[in-house]
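Researcher: We're reviewing a set of sequences before deciding which ones to prioritize for further study. For each one, I'd like a predicted 3D structure that I can look through quickly. This is LysR family transcriptional regulator. If possible, include the structure in token form so it fits the rest of the review sheet.
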Amino acid sequence: MGLDSWDEIRTAFQVARVGTVSGAAEVLGVHHATVIRHVDSLEEKLHTKLFQRHPRGYTPTEAGQQLLSVGQATEDQFSQLAARIAGAGEEVSGELIVTSITPASVLVLPAMHKLLLDYPELRLRYLTDLRVFRLEYGEAHVAIRAGNRPTEPDNVVQSLGRMQNTLYASHSYVERYGIPRSKEDMSKHRFVSTDNRDSRAPFFRWISENVPDENVVFRANEHEAQVDAIKQGLGMGFLTVPMGRSDPTLEEVVKPYDSWDSNIWLVTHVDLHRTPKVQAAVKAIREQALKSEGLISD
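Model: Here's the predicted structure for LysR family transcriptional regulator, in token form for your review sheet.
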């Protein structure tokens, strides 16, 4: 028998349990003719009688008693499984997957630290791959994204504000090349940038539009490599204000311009948004966002 027999087995189990066709039909919410048809079909497939029919109802045969025993055990197991699943959904424990743009780590990691302290049974996976993880496919529970507002129809999108970005340089770079005195002067300096010439980040667009290509002396696709290059003095480069100001080895070259700000979004999937685990993560990230230097609330 295949999966198409499960309805018939469930029907026969209820007949064996309550002893009448009408009683089973009421439990299952179907017509009594459907109950009779299911039982007859199952007996035909099994090549055995499951019930003795009589005016008072249906009495299980030996085969019917076996069905009743297995059916009761199966029903109990499903009930226990449902209870465990429901209970797990109410707990803040197990695996929590957060995906984020790397520059937002200064915002996300303090929030996750507090979350792990509050919920010791939680296990965190933090993914900062360049690709966009698909919440609808279960690749992550919570996402931090930058740029235009995400438009996937089944996602819940909340603004965390605008992240300030500006140019930073190492002390060794400043000692050798000085600090630009104006926007025009900046085009004469050496720069670190992304290897993605089509990047939509406003500060990388500014470099493309205002800095001669020969002045961009180092390009990398990974954010960590760009940060290391800036620290090593290869050139000036853009960092988030929280990251730049927290590093004593770096100097802020100019004050942040509004046109360099990045919109930051907190994204969850509608099916998981209200679960306690996701809500705990959302609450922690939003609270940290309110305290973060360089993140401006809309």
